[in-house]
Design a protein that fits this description.
single chain, alpha/beta, TIM Barrel, 11 helices, 8 strands, binds 2-phosphoglycolic acid
């Protein structure tokens, strides 16, 4: 039986006061469900507000969109995994394509961040995905497997088991262009095989989410892919009633 994970990445949206209003509406439209988990990834300064509002719901949790790889030090403007945990985060997105492609985050840094998340007790959602150019060159599997290996290079194979993966093709993020269920299936199957190789099979249970222009219309067909363990959603997670509906898919 699948226990799907619905993760809403708010990116740079929703100040604390908006988030309070959002959560009021969301909670009214989304009664507790034990067969799935819904995650919220607000901006760091909004995170404590959301964390306080999901506090008494075991089916909901909050994560941070990014962390620094060091635990403390002279890194103006950054947040550590421990600070995020202290503010109420239980998950961390690592290597989101906007971190990689807008902010120049390297594969080396994703490995350091996954290790930092683990030290602080945050569950990593390791994001991988190819650009359109890489896909057209036939490089998709090679790229995502390389990104996965780099992201877990600083932790023990047995520690990979507590993480989650998200396959987000860069060309599908925020573009309205979604991978077909067949595209997602092919890449998830390749990632699953690599997880098996890295962990001596135990990692085969790691959930792999799909992300990239997911909406209420395409969510069901993507979730129907056997190896899609959940959805990582940007734009369609920004409005509370719509997000509550999507999370009931
Ligand atoms: P999108 O974003 O759903 O708006 O394409 C997904 C993501 O960036 O995680």
């Amino acid at each position: 039986m699948k226990h799907p994970i619905f993760a809403g990445n708010w990116k740079l949206n929703h100040a604390p006061a908006d988030a309070e209003q959002f959560m009021k509406v969301f909670l009214a439209h989304y009664p507790r469900r034990q067969d799935r988990t819904v995650l919220f990834f607000p901006p760091a300064l909004t995170l404590p507000t959301v964390a306080a509002l999901v506090n008494d719901r075991s089916d909901l949790a909050v994560g941070v969109q990014n962390i620094h790889w060091e635990d403390h030090g002279a890194f103006t403007g950054e947040n550590s995994a421990a600070i995020a945990h202290g503010a109420g985060a239980r998950y961390a997105l690592i290597g989101h394509s906007e971190r990689r492609h807008v902010f120049g985050e390297t594969e080396e840094q994703t490995g350091l961040k996954v290790a930092a998340a683990l030290r602080a007790g945050l569950t990593s959602i390791i994001c991988v995905g190819e650009t359109l150019e890489q896909r057209e060159r036939g490089d998709t599997v090679r790229v995502v497997v390389r990104q996965l290996r780099a992201a877990v290079s600083r932790i023990q194979p047995s520690q990979i088991i507590g993480s989650l993966l998200a396959y987000e093709p860069v060309w599908a993020i925020g573009t309205g262009r979604t991978a077909t269920p067949e595209d997602a299936d092919a890449v998830h199957t390749a990632l699953r095989a690599e997880l098996g190789a890295l962990t001596g099979d135990q990692g085969r249970a790691v959930p792999i989410l799909y992300g990239g222009s997911v909406n209420r219309i395409n969510a069901a067909s993507l979730l129907a892919v056997p190896d899609v363990g959940g959805l990582l959603v940007g734009g369609a997670s920004l409005e509370p009633e719509g997000w509550a509906t999507l999370a009931r898919t």
